[in-house]
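Query form — protein SprT protein

QUESTION: What is the three-dimensional structure of this chain?
INPUT:
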Amino acid sequence: MPEQLQQQVETCYRLAEQHFARPFARPVVSLALRGQKAGVAHLQENKLRFNAALYRANREHFLAQTVPHEVAHLIAHQLFGSRIRPHGPEWQAIMRNVFQRPAERCHSYSVAQRPRTHYLYRCACSEPLPFTAQRHARVAKGSRYLCRRCRQPLAFSGQTCQR
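ANSWER: The structure tokens for SprT protein are given below.
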């Protein structure tokens, strides 16, 4: 775990403890997140997961904005319970009043899109239709899809393509 990241989490918790005059349980922190999300707060487990690639590529902004964003989710949950909206007024107040940061919902980091495999399905009337891996797996488990034009079942052609 990068020391700067761990230090920023601790700094956020100290600010929250000072502001609310109460202690907060520290979370488990990991860099095990992949994909497009910069961070995720697991409320029930008191756990934070951050995206290592996005952290490395955007370190300064990540420490200043993403870490407080995710910590604010855990603080809001511990203060107000699970019935609040994820980016609702309670979370926004923590971001603005405790961490002095803008209450932005989403990051704007550049995320490289890797090519995805699509599975080509056919019916009697159409060009092949690309299915995602998730939809292809549903077919393997028994789901059926029909062509919108001829209403015939779509069948896997045995071919794939990269998109």
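ADDITIONAL NOTE: The longest strand covers residues 155-162.
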